[in-house]
Structure formats: C-alpha cells, structure tokens
Specification:
alpha+beta; Chorismate synthase, AroC fold; five-stranded antiparallel beta sheet
C-alpha cells in the first residue's frame, strides 16, 4: 500500500481512523504561497462526517493544525505538516468486528493482501484517510490560483444513464458550491 503520492508536489498521508490522529506531510510546495488554516479548514469542513443521513454519524470537528512549513500565512518551501486529532475515536465499538469482515468495506481485501488489518474502524482503509489528501488539495488549489491563475472545480453531470438536462451552460464555481 502506498502512502506517498506525487513527484514535484509530494504528499505523505499517515494515521488511522481510530488512532490518535491523521495527517499529511506536503513536500515540494513553492515559497511564498499565501494560505491560511481557515482556507484549509473550509475544504476539510466539506468532507467531515455527520453531514447527512448516509454518512457516518461519528462527530469529528476535523480541525486542521499546521505544525510546520507555513509562517505568517505563507509557505516556506520546507515540508508542510498538518495534523487532525481524532476526537471521537471509539475503537472498542468495533470489538465485535474483530473476526468479521464488513460487506462493501476494504476489511477483507486489506487482510488478504497484507495478512493484518486494523479492525477498529478500518484503520487506513477508512474514509478518514482522505483528510490528508483534502488538506493537501487545498494547498494545491492555492498554488494553481496564485502561480497560474487557474481554478479547479467539478460536478457530476451523469451517472450511468441518468443525466442532468438542467445544466446546458458552463457552470460557475458559485453555482456548484451553492448546491452542496
């Protein structure tokens, strides 16, 4: 399993769902990119749990703590470290799952591939693993905007044979964000 992604802009994600924390190390960020913890937090708030009936009801604040690499709101060219403490980790709630594999989860494939797994909430195969990627993505968006005047956004226009006829024009980021 790889935990390091990228070449020029490289991220290393770490931590487990019901461990102490999850986070990311970002290396290769140019100096002088203006970014605040609040901007990173805005993207983390979009992915945090408990926002709908179909997501986990786990209550996590997902508060990003920048521990290095950013000074006075600007990147330093040194590795950026971001940690998010797990505040609602309840590993004991999964004791009954020790010897049971959950349907549609990576529990079995992780065990089959590596011969070991963290049964407490899925460990590295939990959706909490995406926190580091989202935080790094917030920084990548700032680099693209400040260095190349480029914005990145996306939306789903079709799933299989169901498509949205409503959007016949090019959507703006404001229209997309207002639909969240």
């Amino acid at each position: 399993m790889g935990n390091i992604f990228g070449q020029a802009f490289k991220i290393t994600t770490w931590g487990e769902s019901h461990g102490d924390a999850v986070g990311v190390i970002i290396d290769g960020c140019p100096p002088g990119i203006e970014i605040t913890a609040e901007e990173i937090q805005a993207d983390l708030n979009r992915r945090k749990p408990g926002q709908s009936e179909i997501s986990t009801q786990r209550k996590e604040g997902d508060q990003a703590e920048i521990t290095s690499g950013i000074f006075d709101g600007q990147t330093l060219v040194t590795p950026i470290s971001i940690i998010v403490w797990n505040t609602d980790a309840k590993g004991k709630d999964y004791e009954h799952m020790k010897d049971v594999f959950r349907p549609s989860h990576a529990d079995y494939t992780y065990q089959a591939k590596y011969g070991i797994r963290n049964w407490k909430g899925g460990g590295r195969s939990s959706a909490r693993e995406t926190i580091g990627r989202v935080a790094a993505g917030a920084i990548a968006k700032k680099i693209l905007k400040q260095m190349f005047n480029t914005d990145i956004f996306a939306y789903v226009s079709r799933i299989h044979n169901i498509s949205s006829e409503e959007f016949t024009h090019e959507l703006t980021s404001v229209e997309i964000e207002s639909n969240i």
